[in-house]
Amino acid sequence: MSAKIKSPVRTLRLKVKPEGYKWLNAAAIEVNRVWNYANEVSYKAARPFAGSGRRLSAFDLDKLTAGAALVFDHIGSETIQRVNAEFAARRTQFKKAKLRWRVSKGARARSVGYRSRPFS
């Protein structure tokens, strides 16, 4: 019998410098927009006006978001495809027609209960 060789796992510790905060926040907002678009489109496909519903796969979402990388400044097509794959996996995992929206910042995030500053 042959023994299965395990590959070592390496952990990297990275520190994000303050200069990168602005770029990372902008990229996170764009990723959340892709997630929310996939959520909305897949919900409409699951509960159509007429006919039977359809569960969209990551491949279907990739076809719907083709060319979206031209609109975004901070993320590319690989990131969009990975977000679509993650969304499809989570939707299958939780067996729901619609997942929660992702909120980055702004008035909508504060309406959930987060206040950046106390009342005056």
Summarize the topology:
Elements: H1 21-46, H2 58-64, H3 77-94, H4 107-111
Summarize the structure.
This protein has helices at 21-46, 58-64, 77-94, 107-111. By secondary structure, the protein is mainly alpha-helical. α2 packs across α3.
How would a textbook summarize the main sheet? Answer: none
**Shape annotation:** extended
User: Can you count the beta strands?
Assistant: 0
Oligomer: single chain
The level of helicity is 40-55%
Residue-averaged pLDDT, rounded?
Answer: 83
Secondary-structure content class: mainly alpha
- Note the total helix count: 4
**Distance N terminus to C terminus?**
73 Å
Can you tell me the residue ranges where pLDDT is under 50 for at least 5 consecutive residues?
A: 110-120
Q: What is the string of SSEs from the N terminus onward?
A: HHHH
Question: Can you tag this structure with a few keywords?
Answer:
mainly alpha, 120 residues, 47% helix, disordered C terminus
